[in-house]
């Protein structure tokens, strides 16, 4: 199982790196999952992520209290809104599908907004 968690952790780091440079693809959620995988496979890599100068504070805040900074909440909700608009515009879904996707995104936004708010600083990543 350690090898599976280790490999999955690196896949999540890779997705997080892609998300850092790709608009609308999240970064932090992949790194949260990577840290959880590394906690089960490589304490050294877990420590590397938790002490990372850019993403470490965000990961530590999430791990300690499930907190998300206000700027991260705003960016997440804005990203979901833009994503839904692009989905609606590009896919031209039927009303039931459009409503189902809207409800899913609203539920995700409600979850993000309901999390405790972490103190934002220059080191906080989105």
Give a structural overview.
This protein is 75% helix and 3% strand. The protein is globular and about 50 Å long. The model is unreliable at 122-126 (pLDDT under 50). It is built from 6 helices and 2 strands. The protein starts with a helix and ends in an 8-residue tail after the last strand. With 126 residues, the protein is mainly α. Helix 2 packs antiparallel against helix 3, helix 2 (28-41) crosses helix 4 (56-65) and helix 5 packs antiparallel against helix 6. It has a two-stranded parallel sheet. The chain has helices spanning 2-21, 28-41, 43-50, 56-65, 70-91, 95-114, and strands at 68-69, 117-118. It has 2 domains: 1-51; 68-126.
Radius of gyration: 16 Å
Main sheet, how many strands, which sense, barrel? 2 strands, parallel
Determine the mean pLDDT: 90
Spans where pLDDT lies below 50 across 5 or more residues: 122-126
- The first-to-last residue Cα distance is 30 Å
Q: Approximately what portion of the residues adopt beta-strand conformation?
A: under 5%
Main β-sheet, spatial strand arrangement: 1-2
Number of domains: 2
Helix content: over 70%
Structure, briefly:
The chain is mostly helical. Helix content is 75%, strand content 3%. It has 6 helices and 2 strands.
């Amino acid at each position: 199982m350690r090898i599976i968690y280790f490999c999955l952790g690196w896949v999540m780091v890779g997705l997080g790196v892609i998300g850092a440079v790709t608009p609308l693809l999240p970064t932090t959620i992949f790194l949260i999952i990577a840290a959880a995988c590394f906690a089960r496979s490589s304490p050294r890599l877990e420590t590397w992520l938790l002490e990372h100068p850019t993403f470490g504070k965000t990961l530590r805040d999430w791990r300690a209290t499930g907190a998300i900074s206000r700027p991260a909440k705003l960016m997440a909700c804005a990203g979901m809104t833009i994503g839904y608009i692009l989905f609606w515009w590009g896919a031209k879904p039927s009303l039931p599908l459009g409503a189902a996707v809207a409800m899913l995104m609203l539920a995700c936004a409600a979850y993000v907004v309901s999390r405790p708010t972490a103190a934002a600083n220059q080191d906080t990543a989105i």
